[in-house]
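hiii so my PI (J.) wants the whole complex modelled not just the main chain, which honestly fair. so below is everything: two entries, each one labled with what it is. i double checked the lines twice but i was tired so who knows lol
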Amino acid sequence: MPAANKRVRIRIAVNGTPRELEIEARRLLVEVLREDLDLTGTHIGCDTTYCGACTVLLNGRNVKSCTVFAVQADGGEITTVEGLEKDGKLDAVQEAFAECHGLQCGYCTPGFLMSTRALLSRVAHPTDAQIRKGIAGNTCRCTGYQNIFKAVRAAAGAAGK
Amino acid sequence: MLGELGEEAKVLAGGQSLIPLMKLRLARPSALVDLNHIPRTAYIETQNGHVRIGAMTRHADIEDSPAAACIPILHDCAAGIADAQVRNMGTIGGSVAEADPHGDWAPVLMALGAEVECIGPGGARTVPVSQFIKDAFSTVLGPADLVREIRVPNAGPRSAGAYVAFKRCAPVYPTASAAVEVKMLDDDFCQDAKVVLGSVGLTPVVVAEAASALRGQAITPHAIRRAAEAAMSAADPQADLRGSVEYKRLLVGVLTERALLAALARARGERVEVAHEYAGR
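here's the output for the full assembly
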């Protein structure tokens, strides 16, 4: 059997829930999240490390889950877009995107939300340049960047209150 | 383990180049050996101005490190590689071992005179980055060898560098880049200089004539112009979707000049921020 099909046991915490999975070594984190755990909020866009639609947090940092083998995440904590909402209340970042209309078709939105969350967790009050740099790894093909940018700014403002 | 798996096996560091290459079927390794769970492979240690960076250190950790605050060219490079997501996974050891002609680290480390410590069945050896990279995607590493550490020497007082790259948007490799390191005698006279270009040759291009245009000279706009022109002639770019040969040559001149001005100002003790330049900004 090729090494890639060998089944490997991994332990990951997804949105706070510990999970033990037996998966083929070749599988990507995004596939395991979507297909095995049914967390389809994380999208696959380009599948070549460009667009950022698949962005999730791995140990608090934003990564492109289409470019991480699930076995690389073993022992780690993963937050997907489904994990942003707490006790039925949207995260400040989600509120701001809704408020500022920071989405058009919505396909890229989960990725933008996760990159914004990672940025604001690291820098509570980012400058405009830091915002641009923080979300530069996410692509919106509707090109709705103006409102996305406003939403990130608003989320930073709301977090400061 | 690598010895047993044979030449078609590959090691997986951050995976930010290897995984896309595998998806595009440009790489088809027979097996992958994951380095991500090996302890004590990610670190940045500074001693007497020398910096040692573990191979599995992520670009984002270098960007935020005290070492990069002291040696700003490390920050210029680390902070500009691809985007935040890639910087959180990608490693300096992986970037150097990949030896992609468009990689950011190689020209910077060559300008700094850095070395790579390699380990393998034959033991450890230390090789200057300039000799470590043999050709595009080719290094001195044998099939069972690994990069353990990158070592950056202490450049001494009145030394500084800067790295400026131009790219079309964040997630892509640069169209061209220039790494400059200068050592000054005083505010005006240059004792030594190095100019290394990225993305405009199969390996980083060391511009010997730019160094001689500056070494032992008073730094005047004329000397800077001569160094930039030397960089333009030394560049050996390929025409592709990123631009024509002529365009890339002109770009190299501009980037060299900008990196040089930033390095000179830093050597005088000024705080200068440079970053990867994007199209349309």
